[in-house]
Amino acid sequence: MKLDRKDLLDIESLSVEEIDLILTTAVPFKRLFTQSIKKVPTLRGKTVALLFYEPSTRTRVSFELAAKRLAADTLVLPVATSSTQKGESLIDTGKTLEAMKVDFIVIRHSESGAAELLARKLKTHIVNAGDGTHEHPTQGLLDLFTLRDKKKNIAGLHVVILGDIAHSRVARSNLWGLTKMGARVTLCGPPSLVPADLAHIYGKSVRVEYDLEKAIRDADAINVLRIQKERQMDGLIPSLSSYTERYGLDPDKLRSAKKDCLVLHPGPMNRGVEIDSEVADGESSVILEQVTNGIAVRMAVLYLLAGTKL
Amino acid sequence: MNLLISGGRVLDPASGRDGIFDVLAAEGRIRRVAKKIPPADGARVVSAKGFWVLPGLIDVHAHLREPGGEESETIESGSRAAAAGGVTTVLAMANTQPPIDNPQQVRFVLRRALEKAVVRVLPVGAVTKGLAGTELTDITSMAREGCAALSDDGHGLMDSRLMRRALEYTKNLGIPLIDHCEDSNLSLGGVMNEGRLSLKLGLRGIPTEAESVMVARNVYLAQLTGAHVHCAHISSGDSVDLIRRAKKKRIPVTAEACPHHFTLTEEAIERYDTSAKMNPPLRGRRDLAAIREGLADGTIDVIASDHAPHELHSKEREFSQAPFGVIGLETLWALTADELVRGKVLPPLEAVRKLTQNPARLFHLPGGKLSPGAPADIALYDPRAEWTAERFFSKSSNSPFIGRKFKGRIAATIVGGRMVYENGNFPAPEEAA
Question: What ipTM was reported for this prediction?
Answer without folding.
Answer: 0.92
